[in-house]
């Protein structure tokens, strides 16, 4: 293990501990045998004075009352697990030019993710874990999968003649045990009036091995699970994960807008005139990173939507650290920071996965989203099909719409398809006012024959919307029910899998029953 990796692993506890532990004896005096405590699990942890850091974290994520009365099994990390880790983590943060963090300042969602994995629903004694493969356990929140397995250690020449130990594992949602994160106990089956407590070895990495990179990252990673496809739309509030000076550079001390990703320092607020989100309070020299997947090498129309009270704002893009030719924009004033317009340029992009940066050369603007479209070429699969970009040809050829006007009027206003701005996060547009029997055509190029996971991003206040997809006139999905999300602009993916053949095709999006808005269809290879 490299020194850096050891440093990262050790650092995990920094986030959980306040500037100093209340007490840290540096050793354990537990015996590995059944004990009983005349009180709740919370009272037991408080009485031992070796769990002060854990208890502080429990309090911050609002689980204190749960440990007073609920029936749970706790795998308790002690203060000894945190002491050196805190020093190492903050040493690394100092090297990276970041402020120190403690339990009281760690973002809530990160602390919640970690703490909940140490508390298991219901009570499970070690005897329930003696099965050959152990047993699955469920973390207290989010149905997160954990695992427990009981073994006897070897002692004095006797195989399995020593004390019993539970291996407690974060399965990370996969079946492959070599990818799990494991922790061993030093004391087990401590019975309280409200559950069981097992004490974890002070040297364990469990829980912390992913927590530290998330809190103290050295590389930026996609905001969502996957990179943004290009061609496609990038809501600029969805910059990479990684924090300040890694995934973005922001000079403010906090998120001044606070309307999205409040734990990050990028300032995000509502674009009230369009009911979406925007990055505001921009300062010259700031930047944001986005992991992207360019589907084809070639020329792209790049459109930036922004608002500005000035007339000389300037930005440019970088791909993998190099400026993108043609991306430098001088942004005319729009009449105000909440009055938006598009500015378009042509850029040359190379196929593959890249790290894209938008850099503020002179900042006097608010930013909504970027959109990339191939110049004179069909959209590709795998990739994302932005549904407002149906084929040219008009009514009855490229689309059928039951009324002649564009009810939204926000994009392609002379066409009959009804298009509005896509509100909330994500940027771009969506097709709305859908009616039964309507359809839209898209010429696409499938790059490889095979199965594709297909994601239709839609929202509705109803429960009766139904669609299907056709390729060259053949229904490839069957009827797909659109979800009732509570709002036409609160979107969820409807997922299916289809088989496609390599080559150029016409995809048709067909409305079998009205009652939803829809934003895009994304195709990802099944493997």
UniProtKB/TrEMBL annotation:
Q: Which Pfam families match?
A: CBM_6 (PF03422), Fasciclin (PF02469)
Per its UniProt record, what InterPro entries does this chain match? CBM6, Cellulose-bd_IV, FAS1_dom_sf, FAS1_domain, Galactose-bd-like_sf
CDD domains, A to Z: CBM6_cellulase-like
Q: Which SMART domains match?
A: CBD_IV
Keyword Iron appears in the UniProt entry = no
Cross-referenced SUPFAM superfamilies: FAS1 domain, Galactose-binding domain-like
Keyword annotations of the record: Signal
What is the organism of origin for this protein?
Chitinophaga filiformis
Q: Which residues form the CBM6 domain?
A: 246-373, 397-524
Q: What is this protein called?
A: Carbohydrate-binding protein
**Domain FAS1 positions:** 38-204
């Amino acid at each position: 293990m490299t020194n850096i990796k050891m440093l990262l692993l050790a650092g995990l506890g920094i986030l959980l501990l306040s500037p100093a532990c209340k007490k840290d004896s540096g050793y354990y005096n537990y015996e590995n045998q059944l004990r009983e405590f005349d009180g709740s699990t919370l009272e037991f942890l408080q009485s031992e004075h070796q769990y002060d850091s854990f208890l502080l974290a429990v309090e911050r994520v609002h689980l204190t009352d749960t440990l007073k009365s609920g029936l749970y099994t706790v795998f308790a990390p002690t203060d000894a697990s945190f002491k050196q880790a805190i020093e190492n983590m903050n040493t690394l943060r100092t090297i990276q030019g970041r402020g120190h963090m403690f339990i009281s300042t760690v973002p809530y969602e990160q602390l919640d993710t970690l703490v909940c994995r140490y508390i298991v629903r219901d009570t499970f004694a070690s005897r329930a874990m003696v099965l050959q493969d152990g047993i699955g356990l469920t973390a207290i929140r989010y149905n997160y999968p954990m695992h427990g397995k009981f073994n006897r250690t070897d002692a004095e020449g006797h195989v399995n003649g020593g004390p019993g130990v539970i291996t407690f594992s974060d399965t990370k949602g996969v079946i492959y045990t070599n990818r799990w994160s494991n922790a061993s106990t030093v004391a087990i089956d401590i019975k309280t009036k409200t559950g069981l407590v097992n004490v974890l070895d002070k040297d364990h990495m469990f829980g912390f091995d992913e927590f530290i990179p998330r809190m103290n990252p050295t590389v930026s990673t996609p905001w969502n699970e996957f990179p943004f496809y290009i061609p496609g739309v990038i809501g600029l509030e969805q910059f990479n994960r990684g924090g300040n000076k890694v995934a973005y550079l922001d000079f403010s001390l906090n998120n001044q807008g606070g309307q999205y990703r409040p734990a990050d320092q990028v300032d995000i607020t509502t674009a009230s005139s369009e009911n979406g989100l925007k990055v505001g309070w921009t300062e010259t020299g700031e930047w944001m990173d986005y992991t992207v997947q360019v589907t084809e090498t070639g020329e792209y129309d790049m459109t930036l939507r922004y608002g500005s009270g000035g007339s000389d704002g300037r930005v440019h893009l970088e791909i993998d650290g190099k400026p993108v030719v043609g991306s430098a924009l001088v942004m005319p004033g729009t009449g105000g920071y909440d009055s938006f317009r598009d500015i378009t340029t042509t850029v040359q992009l190379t196929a593959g996965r890249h790290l894209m940066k938008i850099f503020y050369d002179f900042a006097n603007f608010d930013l909504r989203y970027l959109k990339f479209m191939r110049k004179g070429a069909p959209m590709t699969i795998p990739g994302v099909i932005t549904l407002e970009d149906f084929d040219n040809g008009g009514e009855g050829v490229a689309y059928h719409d039951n009324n002649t006007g564009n009810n939204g009027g926000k994009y392609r206003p002379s066409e009959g398809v009804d298009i509005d701005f896509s509100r909330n996060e994500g940027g771009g547009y969506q097709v709305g006012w859908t009616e039964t029997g309507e359809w839209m055509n898209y010429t696409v190029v499938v790059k490889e024959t095979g199965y594709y996971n297909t994601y239709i991003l839609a929202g509705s206040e109803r429960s009766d919307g139904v669609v299907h997809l056709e390729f060259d006139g053949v229904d490839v999905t069957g009827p797909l029910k659109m979800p009732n999300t509570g709002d036409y602009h609160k979107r969820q993916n409807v997922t299916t899998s289809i088989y496609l053949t390599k080559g150029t095709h016409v995809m048709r999006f067909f409305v079998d029953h009205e009652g939803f808005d829809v934003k895009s269809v994304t195709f990802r290879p099944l493997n």
